[in-house]
Amino acid sequence: MTRRWTPSPTLRASAAVHGAALLGTLAVPAAWPWAAGALLANHAVLVAAGLWPSSHLLGPNLTRLPEAAARRREIALTIDDGPDPAVTPRVLDLLDAANARASFFCIGRIAEQHPALCREIVQRGHRVENHGFAHSNAFSLFGPGRMRRDIARAQAALGDITGQAPRFFRATAGLRNPFLDPVLHGLGLELATWTRRAYDTRTGDPERVFHRLTDRLGPGDIVLLHDGHAARTSKGEPVILAVLPRLLQTLAERQLHPVTLTHAMT
Q1: pLDDT for res 17
Q2: Beta strand 103-106 with 257-259: parallel, antiparallel or unpaired?
Q3: Shared-domain flag, residues 93 and 191
Q4: Secondary structure (DSSP) of 13-33
Q5: In the chain, which residues have pLDDT < 70?
Q6: How many independent structural domains does the chain possess?
Q7: What pTM value is reported for the model?
Q8: I want to staple 130 with a disulfide (CB 3.0 to 4.6 A). Which of 104, 114, 166, 211 is the partner?
Q9: Is residue 243 part of a domain?
Q10: Rounded to whole angstroms, how far apart are CA atoms 78 and 258?
């Protein structure tokens, strides 16, 4: 039996503000400026929460691995925006060489163009997770219906291609709105963001990307990289390919074990 969706305290407080503003204006019409101000302030909080990827204000959000995984010295490598036929196979080879596992948040429409590559990700011991179908930059502006259709379409496509239904969802750039939590609950998905990111779709400097990822990196962290839309180094190489070997070596030196999100939750 599916557990009933429960809104976060922030969403419950938002509903209370709306109700109080309506009732207050009906009881005292002259108080409408105060009611309007309260609603504007409330919506500012909701927008700010949606623009903050690691926020828990709009609902559950996996930003770190559970304590049990941290005690096992596990970290999660998560790789977004693929699959990319020019980059992803090389990423898989690097992961294989280090005996490392990762979670690939794949875009549904791109996965449909490269189904064999998605299947290879799973066959080589990794997980494919849901990064939406269209990967629209306007995702955080979607209403609940459009949001559900986009995520559900990716869920169906990725499940059909790989034979495994994704467990986790990540929004485009991590941006969302209050509609996302009930939509994910209805689809049986969990929101996962990250502990640390390197902005490697915008920064092609391998040294800067590496230090952003490894500064204070420790057990339980969720690391974000990109095989799709990766920035290029000065030599034209996708920055993930320049950084990943050194990152994997650093993980080994620190006795940190890269695992999939699903493995870490067991």
Answers
A1: 81
A2: unpaired
A3: yes
A4: HHHHHHHHHHHHHHH-GGGHH
A5: 1-2, 35
A6: 2
A7: 0.94
A8: 166
A9: yes
A10: 10
Q: Mark whether 137 and 113 lie in a shared domain.
A: yes
pLDDT in tens, 58-98: 999 999 999 999 999 999 999 999 999 999 999 999 999 99
Indicate whether 254 and 171 sit together in one domain: yes
For the segment 183-195, what is each residue's pLDDT rounded down to a tens digit? 999 999 999 999 9
**Catalytic residue, candidates 131, 185, 226, 257:** 226
Per-residue tokens: 91: 């990423």
Please tell me whether residue 9 adopts helix, strand or coil conformation: helix
How far is the C-alpha of 99 from the C-alpha of 67, rounded, in Å? 23
Q: What's the domain range around 34?
A: 9-51
The β-bridge partners of 169 are 130, 191
Is the distance from CB of 212 to CB of 197 less than 8 angstroms?
yes
Helices and strands counted in the chain (H then E) = 11, 8
Alpha-carbon dihedral sign for residues 11, 16, 21, 23: positive
Of 80, 150, 200, 227, catalytic: 80
